[in-house]
Structures are given as structure tokens and as C-alpha cells.
Amino acid sequence: MSGPQYQSLANVVTDDMLRATKESITPGIDDSPYIHHAIEALTRQRNSRGISGAHSSGADEENPMMRYMPSTVPGLFDPLPAHESLSQSGSANYYEDVDPEELLATRRLQRALSSDRVIPAANDQPPAPSREQPPAMSREQVSSPDGNGEYQWGDQSGWYGSEGKAMMDESRNRPKHVHRSPRHLNHWHTCSDADAAHIRSHPPLTYKPWILRTPSLSALAVLCTLMIAALIFCAVYSDRRDGLAGYSGSMGGGQYFVFRFMPQLIAAVLLIYAQCVVTAAFRILPFSAMASDDLRYRRGVAFLPLYPKSFLWPQLVSTWQVWVPNVITWIASLTIPLQSTLFTVIIVDGTWSWATVQGVAWVLVALYVLLLISTIIQIIFWRNRRTGMRPGWDVRNIADVIHLVAQSNSAQLYDGTETAASRAEIRDRLDGNRDRLGYWSTPDDPSWVWHGIGHSTNDEKVDIEQMGAPSDSRRSGTSHRPLADQDGTDRLHSYMPWCFRTSQVVLWAVAASVLLIALFVVSFTPTTDIQQGFLPALKAGPIPGAFSAADFLYSFVPSLIGLVLFLMFQSLDLTLRILTPWGELNRKEGSRAKTSLLADYAACLPLQATWRALKNRHWRVACISFLANLFILIPVLAGGLFMAMTPPAGGVRMYPNVPAYAILLALLVLYVLALVALIPKRAQFGLPHAVTCVAEIVSFCANDELLADEAFQWPRDRRALKGKLDAYADVLDQSRWFIGDGQHGEEKFGIRRLPTFTQLPSQRLHPKLHDPATLEKAKHTVLRGSHVAHNHKISRPVNTGNSQMLD
Description:
- By secondary structure, the protein is mainly alpha-helical.
- Among the domains are: 3-174 and 769-791, no CATH class; 210-382; 498-685, no CATH class.
- It has 27 helices and 11 strands.
- A hairpin with a 2-residue loop joins strand 5 (436-442) and strand 6 (445-454).
- InterPro entries: DUF3433 (IPR021840).
């Protein structure tokens, strides 16, 4: 088929899309100003991306993708010569006589046909010496087709540098039928890491986050060993020397801080470190289990929790190598209140000295030995363990999960699970499911290896029925569940985590406020002024072993209460971080991928979530996550708050450290305010069911519209995926996503791209363009003159009446 014929084909497509555009606009209103304005906006967008000579000096920094992903049309890097007018260029008249509406439709077609192209952003600054630059090409070279109507660009190997060259090589080596999704193949065969490495140089799937690697776990083990050594030294030295150091006689100063606050502060650091390890293990374990080649280990692993519910109580999940460290970390929480009772003051030969409480010291030694043992278990368990994850690609957010199931042949098994009311209902629906995460191949082309979630269809694995394929009765009973109950309850937003339900949140906020007011009244009423001290009601004198009942009680109990408050707030913080991306998708106007699909707050380390929430302008998440870490000071300060002293009038009274008490009251005020901040705007978190396991998340990602979206088709790495999701584009240019029902009455709830006002969901390519060869040639026809379209002069719309067009 000749070039003019393909030009005619492009015009047919343009006319189809133009008619669809006209149908989407309100009849009876002059739409020309708006269309002109949209075309001008698109023109400015192309200029800002480096197509023209007007460059953005900061483009390289904002969009790292643009530094190595080249344009498929060379010569666009160079602006037109100053002496050469637009009318003199060979292709300048390409759009000269085109109607503006047709031009707008053509631009949309160009985007649809080249959505996988990333236009490099030029930079006003001189290029770095190490960056290879594209060779200068004459306009005759750019615009001269060969005999087949194709454009020959010559040797392109030197244009893009090493990274771009590697991507080009990967594209050339991809099988010719890669445009077909593997989920449509009839045969899926498992491919081991060794086979994949031999066939296509695929690396082993043993990637894990840094905190689960041997250096990180070894660092935790070293810290535990140092703590054990320090405790043993303090206990032995104090027992043999009748104390550690002389008491200064004051409840302030550096000495008081060292003996009454520093021990539990160090214990808090170790505890948070251990909690981060357990949290990361929870998140990686389901994917690691799915990567196993043994069917027995893969059964039901999609329902393993991705996050610990709370550290107030342990969760016994999976094998003993996982739940034993979890239980030990839960027990290790007691190290903070115990460390607050480690040192006390005793009198020896008429001199007061700081001494180590022997019983407490040896209990702490035992606890840290257990923590050391659990760390060693995790080092052995995670070292060289297969996790199913590609190097550098930790599954941290919704987009990562969608990428894993985009090519899956198991997605159809999740039909109907999106409206299930509970995890048990989804489990019943997917009974026998044994999805595998890893490399796959097909006998149709053994050299074609891909990575993702799916189930095997060869004789070495069970067939689809044994894997829990839905029967007709189960399918009809679930997938057509009404979206609202007879009483009018909206099923699609009926679920809310227990700790975020209105009754619980309001009750906690009210109870905390009442208790805080009571604490202020008791603390500052003249008759009960805490600064005057209070009677301990217990014997304060130390017994052999430096144990004082009064000091132990008024150090351990306040610290324990503070620890409970801290752990409770940790659960609220984690729940908020889990639900925030879904709340963004629930917004009526949708949300950018950067603030929803790519938000990974639940997988962040302490303070990392705060920083990323600030960047995404999620102020509530930023404040709550910051306070969740700050509140560790509540048990730390409460443990060293009181101490038995003898006033001049005689007797023994418990006195507070006034500066520490003031800071503690301020933290409690922040605690109450944080609880109150959780009350408003919780309706956006409503979903049909929870999203705390892989199966629950996949249930919202298994619709065909999402799986076929171009953004999730074969991204090279995480950076490429973020680029396809417009994470590096300007805010106004980024696509938006939402979670809801499908278009045209489709009763399937799930994540989708939000259509723009210029693009109808019903728009489809011309039937002839479904042929790959025809589609490729049509691309050249449409894109041939697109590099000068930005120079097409279009006047700004004129304000009419009360309407106003804004930039």
C-alpha cells in the first residue's frame, strides 16, 4: 500500500475521532474557542517537552526519564535555523490548510499511536561531556523517504548513549509477537531463574528491600550484642563496686538524663528497627511464597497479610521462621519500660550513688538475647531467598501490583471478587488458587520469557479446575452482586477498617480529651499540685540488688501506659498510610498516578512516609506519620518522670522532673489533636473490602480495561513505569485515575484511567489499524509532519459573554 493510501487511512481515522469529539460537546454552543484553546495548550505542551527551540532549563532534573529515552523521530532535537522561515521548510505546509478541529483530532491520534514514545526534554545548558549527542542532520536527510515510503535515518547507534542503546537492543531482541499479551496464550510453562538467565540473561528473582538484606540485619544483630554487653557490664560492675557513679543530688542535669532517660531512648531505637524489619518481612513474605516452585507452599499465600495489624499483640503467620521473630519483637516492646527502671539511687556508707537494678538488668539481657536469636533466624531465612522480584523493583504500591498482573492468565479468576464483602468470601471464591510469581515461557516460542503472576498450564502442575477456577454457580453468585443492598446501603463503599469507623474514632478522641483535661486539673490544682510530690504508698528504700518498689512502680507503669499509647497510634498511622492511595482514587475527579497508584506510604521507613507525603501534598498523612514517630517519646519520658526523694520535712515523696513533665503534656495534647484530625474526610476510604493482602488488591485490578492500559505494557523498569504513568510530566499534563464502575453500564468495580473531556471512552481505532503492519505504517503517516505542528499559528479564543478561558 502506497504512502498516499496510508495518508487517506489517517484521514479516515481523524474523521472518526472528529465525529466522536463533536458528539461529546453540548449541541447548540459554539465550541470553536474551546477547541482552539485546547490546540494551543497542546502546542505549548509540545514546546515545553523539547520539540521546539523553546526549552525548559529544568526539564532534565524534573524528568529523569527524558535523559535517556530518545525520540523515535530524529532531527527534532534541533530548532529551526533563525534564517529559515516556517514556510521554507519542506514539511511546513503539512498542516497549513487543516481545519483546527481536524488538527485536534489528529493530535489525539498521534498520542494514541505513540503513547509509548517519550519525547526527550531539551536543556538550555550545555550537555555534559560524557553524554553522547545526536548527530546533526540536514533537513533533506530528515524529510527524504526511501522507495517504500519509509524514512531512513541512517546509523542511529550513536544517538542515545549507552542507556538508550541498551533499550534499543532490548526492543530489537523482543519477539515479534510481543504485542500479544501472554494472558491470551493457551500454554504457560514455568521458567526457573537458571533457565531464564540462560535464555534471555534475566537475573535471579532474589531482590529484597535493604532492611531485609544481610548487612542491615547484621547491623541489628551487632546493636543487640552491644546492648547485651553493656547490660552485663553495668550489672557486674555495679554489684562489685556498690554502684556506678555518685549521685549529684539533683533531678536535672546531664547525669539524670543519662541514668533516667537514655536507656529507654536507646531501647526505643532498637525496638523501631526491629519493628521495621518485621513490617518489611510481612510485605515481602506473600510474594516470596508465591515465587516458590512447590505447590504446597503457594496454596492460599495470596491471602497472607501484607502489613501487621498492630504490635500490641503478635500475629502468627506462615512458617516459624516468620512468626517467631514477630512474637519476639512483640515481647521486646517491654524493653522500653524495663529500661526506665534499670538504674536507681542507693546509699552506701552514707553516700548516695547510682546503681544497677540487678533483676531488671538480667531480664533485659534475656530479652535482647532473644531479639539477637530472632535476628539471626531472619538473616538465615532471607539470605539468598527467592522473592520473585526483579532487581531494583520492590513491590511497594498499587502500580507495582498492577504491573505484575497486567499479563497474568489468572486475572479472569478474580471476576466478581471486587464486590466481595470480606476476605473469607474472596478466599471461598478463589479456593485452591496457587498463583505463581516468577518467569514464564510458552512452547510457541521458548525464547520468549516474561515475568509476572500466573498459573501453569503444563502437565507438571495442576490444571485450572484444581487451581480454583470459578464454577458457573459461584461466578453467577458473586460477579452479579447488586451494588446496593435493599436498604440502600452502598456496597462499594461499605467497608471501613475497625479503627477508622466513626464510633471508634470519636470515642477515642472524646475519651482522650477527657483524660487529658483531668490530668491538667490534677497536675495544676493547688491542693494536688504535682510539683509538691505525692506519697508513694509503697516502700521506697532499696533492698539488696538495688531494687526499690516505689521507683520500679512509678517508672514501669507510666512507661507501659505510654508504650500502649504509642503502639495504638502506630496502628492508626499504618491504616491511614494504607488507605490514602485508595482514598485518592475514590475522589470524584480522580487522582494523578503520583499521588495514588505510585504512593507507597505503607512501605516507607520512619520519616520516609512523612517526606513523601509532603511532596505529594498529603498534609494529614505527613502530620500523622511524623507524630507516630514522635510519640515514641511518650514512654521514654514517662519512664524517667518520677523519682523517690526525701524532702526537708522528712518522709519520702515521689517528685516529677518538671521539664520532662511539661514536654510530656505537650505530646499528649498533640496526641489528642491527632485523633481529632482523623475524624473528618474518612468517607473517601470506603471500599467493598479491605486491601491488606495481595488477593484483595488484585480484585480491584483485574478488569480488562486496566490490564490492557498502555502504561502497564512491558515497562523496562520502575522508572519506565513511572514515566508511562506521567509521574515526570507537568501536573496539568498528568493523566488521572479513579476506582469505580466501568463505562457503558459495565458492572465491574475497579481501577481505571479517567477519560478526559477531549477523549471519549468509546473511541476506538479504525478497524484496519488493528493489523500491526498497517498500524506501524499509519504511525509514520501521522507523525511525518507532527514535529512542525507546534509552529501552527492559532489565535487565542476571544472571551464571549461571561465565559473566560484561562491558561
